[in-house]
Amino acid sequence: LKCDRGSGGNGVLRLAMSLINELWKKVSPNLRLITCAAYLAAFICVLIFPSFDRKTEIEEHGLIGHGYASSDFTGAWPKRLRSVIKQIESGHGLALALAQALEEAELVAHHMNFTTPGGLSSSLTYTVASSRRGDSREAVVVVCAANWTAGKRQMAKASWTLGIGVVLAQFLKTVPWLSKDVFVVFVDGSLPYGAGARAWLRAYLGGTSAVRRGTLRQAVVIDTSSSPSTLLTEVEGVNGMVPNQDLVNTFVANAEKYGLPIQHREPWESVFHTLLNGGVHSSHSPFLELHVPAFTVRGTKGKQERASVDVDQFMRSLEGLVRSLSYNLQQLHHSFNFYFFTGPNRHISSGLYLYPVFAMQLPLISFLMTTPAYRDIRSFLVGLGSVAVVILAAGSPIFLLGTNADLASALAGLLPAAGLGAGG
To answer: How far is residue 65 from each of residues 60, 102, 167, 237, 296, measured CA to CA in Å?
Structure first.
């Protein structure tokens, strides 16, 4: 019986091998044609990948801030918000108007000067709304990125962003539900590479900040001129980094609750924006680089658009977002980490469009398998080794300069002209 079982098993194996050999004999002459056809089919799927979108969801269990909680931004608060915006708009000098508004709101303002790697001198201001029931182990950041560069109607353009930041910080100090401290940071959004937010993060994490309140969990950037007609959510950061989708979807849910017009970039627009590294100058990019989920709410207005966003409803949507972030231990993280939006409530996840990309590599594999030069394992290994050597030779200097501060300082001493770039 043992012999029979063994011979039966070997028979099945031999049959399987013979079938594989026969299949290979029939397929191998047309292997390149088959893989090229697979490439073409995958390429078509990539071109139409927005058609495979699906509804967005907030997958964080127990999150109720966006659906069931009513807004506390009522009574005298809307009037206070409009008063502060009008006060800043009529002020003389943006920094002076901001300092006066923070003082009248009885908020402790901290001022910081810094220099960008490009040699530009600038400053930023921040305050903190402390939680009544939190333990200061976690914090949320709201960055107000207005254009501080002197220009026509500078005060009018920046009044919305600055006024919302001041009143939001004042309002959050009075609410009983806040469980995390909230930093409100005012920066110049016109600086390259998000220099204002980057300088504040460097000071906060480097221990030179005047106030520290634990781990930074998530952040939202407000960058809008006065009376925008649409709110655009910018999620793209440097090198294609995006925040966890739960964070963006929570804001969208709160904004739609109050009837605000929300837009995302179209999929291919987002692809080309990422390809050109368009998010490198956004103020939320420095947070993403430090693995702190963040995105920007940018107010836009077309030439033919006359309707404007209701500033009171915008404030209530921000209140709902902060409330949702405050409810959660740690951070919103259960949803997708790489995606493209096709609409306010629809998206495409990486699980859909990456498979066609993998299929597009099949022709390369088929050519390697059928090219005589690569059939010889020694030639194949030599080729791989050559590629590895080129990668190491080209990438090692940049890697060492980016990770070894001593080497960068030593080279900066040898090349004084490069000292400014190394210091950044």
So the answer is: 11, 27, 20, 26, 20
Which DSSP symbol is given to 221? E
- The neighbour count for residue 312, using CB atoms within 10 Å, is 17
Mean pLDDT across 71-96 = 91
- Token output for 104: 């009248």
Its sign, for the CA torsion 403, 404, 407, 409, is positive
For 222, counting Cβ atoms within 10 Å of its Cβ (0-12 exposed, 13-18 middle, 19+ buried), the class is: buried
> What is the C-alpha separation between 289 and 374, in angstroms, rounded?
40
For residue 137, give both structure tokens: 């182990």
Structure confidence by residue, pLDDT tens digits, 226-251: 889 999 999 999 888 999 888 999 99
Mean pLDDT of the chain: 84
Alpha helix (H) ranges present in 28-76?
31-47
Find the helix or strand (DSSP H, E) in which 299 lies: strand 294-300
Residue 276 has pLDDT above 90, yes or no: no
Single-letter amino acid, residue 362: L
- The set of residues, in sequence order, having a beta carbon less than 8 Å from that of 247 and lying 6+ positions away, is 218, 220, 293, 294, 295, 325, 331, 332
With a cut of 50, say whether residue 53 has pLDDT above it. Answer: yes
pTM of the model: 0.79
CA 101, CA 113: separation in Å to the nearest integer? 20
